Amino acid sequence: MPTPQKRSALAARRKAMGYSQEDLAEAVGVDRSTVARWEQGKTEPYPENRSELARALNVDYEELDRLIQAEAAPTLRPVPHVSPVGKREAAFSAAGALWRDPEEAEELARRVAASDVGDSTLTSLESGFDDLACQYQFEPPSLLLLEINRVLDHVAGLMDSRKKLHEHRRLLLVGGWTSLLGATVLIDLERDRAASTYLSTALSLAEQAENPEIIAWCYETRAWQALTSSQFRIAVELSRAARSFAPRGSSIAIQAAAQEGRGWARLGSREETYRAIDRVQKMASSLNDPARPEHHYRYDPAKAVSYTATTLTWIRDLAAEDFAREVIRKIGAPMSLPPRWPRRAVMASIDLALTLTYAGKSDEALHAAMGAVESGKLVPSHFWRVAEVADAMRAEKFSGVKELNAAYEAMRHPRQT
C-alpha cells in the first residue's frame, strides 16, 4: 500500500481561515478525525462533503481540487553501501541493545497480547447486531432504536478498554453497522438531523476499519433519505457513489443499483430506469436465498421483485401491477396475520394502489391503499407514499379519495388515549 502523502496546502488553507481541525469538521458536518485523515492524505473528501468544504474554506471547486491533490512523493535517496562486515556489526550492536534489558521486550509482548474485551464479548455484539437487523422488518422503529442505542453505549464503553488490534477493528465494524442501522431507523421516524449524525458516525468508523461495504451502505442510506425529501438528482448521485464503493456481487452493489433506478424513475428518465432495473435483475438472478433473508443488509432475490414494482409504478408502467401482486401473493397482504415481510407487504400494497389508480380501477385501488393504511405497519417515512396515492386518486376524480384522506389523517394524527 503506498504511503499517504500529507496535504499541506489543505492544512495551510484551514489555518489561514482560522479553523482548528475540530472547527472545520463542525462547519462541514464531519468528525474531527475525518478532517485529520484528509490532511494526512489517508482519505479524500466524499462528493457530498465537497460543497460544504469549499464554502468553509472560501474557495471554488477548482481550487479545492488543487488543495486535496496528493503531494508528490519525496524523492528516495540512494541507500549508502554498507559492507557485509559493517552489516554484521550493526546487527550485533542492535541485538546487544535488546539483550541488555530483555524484560522490556517481554513486557511489550505482554501488553500487545493483553485484552479486556475478548472474543466472546465481540461475538455477542456481532450476533446482537444481526438480530437487530432482522428485527427491522417487524419491530416498531421507536422500540428498535432503544435497543440500538443500548448496543452503541456498550460499544462506546469498550473503546477505551485494552484490546488487540483485530479486536479493535471488530469493535469498529460492529459500531459502524449498528450506527448505520440506527440512522435507517431515524429516517423512518423522520428525524433527519439525528439520522445524519448516526450516518457520519457509521462512515467514520467504516473509514477507520477500511470497510468499503459499510461506506457503500452509508451512501445508499443517504440516497434513500434524499429520495424521501424529493432530492431526486442527489439520490441518483449518492446511489452511484454507493456503487463505486460496493464490493462486486455484494448485497449493497445490488441495493445501490436498485436505489439509483428509483431515483431515475422519480426524475422521469425511462431509459435510465429500465437500464437500472435490468442491472438489478441480472445481479439478483445469481443470488441464493441467504440464511437469514429478513436481515436488512442481505439482499434476497424476492427483494428485486419489490423494488421493481415500486420503480415501474413511478414511471407509470402498468406492468408494475403484476410485480406488486406477485409480492403480495408470496408474503401476504399487510392486513394478514402476520405477513412474512410487514414493510415489504405495505410497500407492495401502495404500489398496487397507485398503479391501479393509473389504470382507472378505483375500487381495487382504494381497497389496496386502505389495507396499507389500516395495517398499522406504516412508519412515518412511508406516509408520503399514501399521500401520493391520494393525489393520484384526486386527479382521476375517484370518489373514494375522501375515505382514504380521512384514514390518512387519522394515521398521521392518532388520538391520544
TrEMBL record:
<keyword id="KW-0238">DNA-binding</keyword>
<dbReference type="GO" id="GO:0003677">
    <property type="term" value="F:DNA binding"/>
</dbReference>
<protein>
    <submittedName>
        <fullName>Helix-turn-helix transcriptional regulator</fullName>
    </submittedName>
</protein>
<dbReference type="Pfam" id="PF01381">
    <property type="entry name" value="HTH_3"/>
</dbReference>
<dbReference type="InterPro" id="IPR010982">
    <property type="entry name" value="Lambda_DNA-bd_dom_sf"/>
</dbReference>
<feature type="domain" description="HTH cro/C1-type">
    <location>
        <begin position="10"/>
        <end position="64"/>
    </location>
</feature>
<dbReference type="InterPro" id="IPR001387">
    <property type="entry name" value="Cro/C1-type_HTH"/>
</dbReference>
